[in-house]
Amino acid sequence: MTSLRAELIAESLDQVKKKITNAALGASRSVDELTLIVVTKTYPASDVEILHNLGERNFGENRSEEGAEKSAQVNATWHFQGQVQSRKLRDIAGWATYVHSIDSPDHALKLSRICNELGKDISIFLQLSLDGAPDRGGVIDTEIAALAEQVAILPNIKLAGLMCVPPVSYEHQRAFSEIAQIHERFKSRFPESKSLSAGMSSDFEVAIAHGATHLRIGSQILGSRAYHP
Predict the structure, then answer these.
(1) Could you give the CA distance from residue 183 to residue 160 in angstroms, rounded to a whole number?
(2) Is residue 187 part of a domain?
């Protein structure tokens, strides 16, 4: 069964990588500009081990407990992508190299202090919200630069760039065109923070065409639901 699972994952991974390459070529971009983060939330650590054996080194989790457990089994670059809760920041800092969902100066400050205590650095993305919906997290365009100013001076924190998950109601081209415009303005103000974490299984090709650098892809590689061996 494990051998069959490995074959299925290898085939799906290859298909996704071909789509990434084609999308990059279509956008006159180098595939070397892109980082594939395989989102392994709800999938077993055995899947992560298969992917690691296939050469993947970046994995994303939405729950700190899962991230801590899997990162202890597979040595890789781990990305926390879920909504941040203050009480979970110390746990997250224990295993994550990147946090993609900072939308509060208080969270950034607390993370900086924790990282200082732990003697480590963490890279963060500021979460951009296109519609300002409070239940989905994120900061609107007119407030993102002010947050970046506060975060950029914190010790043990590296501001990587922006992250965005478009609202479901937004058509893909519209959403990523808007994200791209905001990202360009952000880069002009914060030239050291050029990364854009955007694009998931349903829209990563459009995201690539609009400047995404970090792609968070799960179901197109691992299937629509968690695999149970």
Answers:
(1) 12
(2) yes
- Per the CB < 8 A criterion, the answer to whether 154 and 105 are in contact is no
Spatial distance between the Cα atoms of 76 and 122, rounded to a whole number of angstroms: 14
pLDDT of residue 1 exceeding 90, the answer is no
Tell me the C-alpha distance between 161 and 171, whole Å. Answer: 23
Dihedral, CA atoms, 60, 61, 64, 65, nearest 10 degrees? -120
CB atoms within 10 A of CB 105: 15
Is 29 a domain residue? yes
Per-residue pLDDT tens for 158-216? 999 999 999 999 999 999 999 999 999 999 999 999 999 999 999 999 999 999 999 99
Domain membership of residue 229 (yes or no) is: no
What is the tens place of the pLDDT at every residue in 53-99? 999 999 999 999 999 999 999 999 999 999 999 999 999 999 999 99
Measure Cα distances from 3 to 44, 56, 145, 229 in Å. Answer: 15, 18, 48, 11
Domain that holds residue 141: 2-222
CATH number of 114's domain: 3.20.20.10
Question: Would 176 be classed as within a structural domain?
Answer: yes
Q: Which two tokens stand for residue 158?
A: 């590296």
Mean pLDDT rounded to a whole number for the chain: 96
| Cα 92 from Cα 127, distance rounded (Å) | 17
CA–CA gap between residue 223 and residue 43 (Å, rounded) = 10
